[in-house]
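Milestone M4 deliverable, item 7.
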Amino acid sequence: MDFALSEEQTAIFDMAHAFGQDAIAPHARDWETQGTIPKELWPQVGELGFGGLYVSEESGGAGLSRLDATLVFEALSMSCPSVAAFLSIHNMCARMIDNFASDDFKARVLPDVIPMKTVLSYCLTEPGSGSDAAALKTRAARTNDGYTLNGTKAFISGGGYSDAYVCMVRTGEDGPKGISTVFVEDGTPGLSFGGLEDKMGWRSQPTAQVQFDDCTIPAENLVGEEGKGFSYAMAGLDGGRLNISACSLGAAQQALDMTKAYMRERKAFGQSIDQFQALQFRLADLEIELQAARVFLRQAAWKLDTKAPDATKYCAMAKKFVTEAGSRIVNQCLQLHGGYGYLADYGIEKLVRDLRVHEILEGTNEIMRLIVARHMLAEQ
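Output delivered:
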């Protein structure tokens, strides 16, 4: 069993890390204050091939493995987990299109999606359906020319900001078999947005409700087949859970690196605080937990890449374990900074705020436990 990254994988990580430190990290606090990510960043990201990380090479994407993609998100989140997580959402949408849309649809949409001239948002959650996603109410009624949409999506990263929205809507009966996936472009009549949400973290990501009021789209904006939308949405979540875990991992690594540097400089009782054994033990515990999380995440990514029958179980376990580990690590790093950790200038409090939502999205960690338990019982 080889745990080492290949030369190519190391190069992928290094490229993403260098870009993040150069193009994102110096601006992360300003973007958080402004509540937005400059649109001109995304074509730069696209030039690196990061706008279609696991879109197939036949469709013009990078064709990377899920493990390779986690390296990109881990590296980018060391500069800003909010920006890295937004890129994960775009890639989840791009993958859905590549996997399930018709050749004509892919030829029409992907040439702008992959270089990130078109930025995508994912619309599944509604005000009354979060964990119970199959209960969604937004309806798409068939017309002679296509579909008319009515309903509301909630907590949408990029709401009012993105160029197009990959939306799960109800075209049939109640339950998962009545759900389809449609593509709604910004500027479509009947598409509107709620006010920007005032959030604890991920503040550089504009987040808003997406509203459909007799919103009309052409028939060719159906992604794949009617009635298959819920399965499309769920197929994307295994990889999404790995990506958000990688964002927690990278942010935790960054926090730990910053904390070690701070402790070398901070003096108390005549010596730097990294010389106190009690604090050394604290650092050791954080390093152990961080490395355990990294190995667990990469094993789950390997399971998904190899199509292992228990891949979904491992993705759920990794998401629960890694996101909670990341939150614990950054919180302890804040503690080791003392009062300075509570100040925005040191960057630690932002990581604490940004990582908290990782335990909620892509399926709450309570749902991750449910998935794991069901797989365990089914194996008996």
